[in-house]
Specification:
NPS3A protein; about 220 residues; Alpha-Beta Plaits; 7 helices; 2 domains; 8-stranded antiparallel β-barrel; NIPSNAP; alpha+beta; single chain; Dimeric_a/b-barrel; globular; NipSnap_domain
């Protein structure tokens, strides 16, 4: 059911979400900032964030792979990396309550972007769409995203469609200068007839939505 057009190469993104024990969040982030270079020596990290609003004690990180063979090679190398296993994994696993991973592709009309400057905040918006995939709801969803982009208050970083994990799910990553800048932009967008029309058309295919405000870690390439 989750079929439809996507990019012509094998590149995909693994989205990993961890729930951290509330009393251990500070310790977890300190360990990640200190030792994550052992992990990034093996494959490309897109970004690493912690939740500020919309969820508590949660971290989210995105890894890029050329294809599934590439991921298999990386995972094998990590299993044999004594620094990675000994200095980071053994230290952080007792701090983690739950782990989740998803494999996703960028939607066909989206390229992975970067913010115009460092600083600011990120918003991670998860849309659970009705079964059928981009072939069913892709056009309406793209129109709704573009309507928000055209207001100029926010910057699209990426839109990801799941391949493994809960299907018919789209994650959209936005960048804003600040939470207040985002709030002001949202209020203006809600008064824009073009945005309202595009959103009303796309929600016909929507089952649920969740938003998180994310703050990048020091070690995150996207800041």
């Amino acid at each position: 059911l989750a079929t439809g057009p996507r990019q012509n190469n094998g590149v995909f993104y693994e989205i990993r979400t961890y729930d951290i024990k509330p009393a251990k969040m500070k310790e977890f982030m300190e360990m990640i900032n200190k030792y994550l270079h052992f992990r990034t020596a093996h494959s490309e990290l897109v970004g690493f964030w912690y939740s500020e609003l919309g969820a508590m004690n949660k971290v989210l990180h995105i890894w890029k792979y050329d294809n599934f063979s590439h991921r298999t090679t990386v995972r094998h190398a990590l299993a044999n990396d004594k620094d990675w296993q000994g200095k980071l994994i053994s230290a952080i696993l007792p701090l983690v309550e739950k782990q989740q991973n998803e494999v996703a592709y960028l939607v066909p009309w989206c390229q992975l972007g970067k913010p115009p400057k460092e600083g600011g905040v990120y918003e991670w918006v998860t849309f659970q769409m009705k079964p059928g995939g981009p072939a069913l709801w892709g056009e309406a969803f793209q129109a709704a995203i573009n309507a928000h982009i055209n207001t100029g208050y926010t910057t699209l970083i990426g839109a990801f469609h799941t391949e493994y994990g809960l299907l018919n799910r789209v994650h959209v990553l936005w960048w804003n200068e600040s939470p207040d800048h985002r709030a002001a932009g949202r209020h203006s967008a809600h008064e824009d007839a073009r945005v309202v029309a595009a959103v009303r058309n796309s929600v016909r295919f929507l089952e649920s939505q969740q938003n998180m405000l994310l703050i990048p870690l020091q070690c995150s390439p996207l800041k």
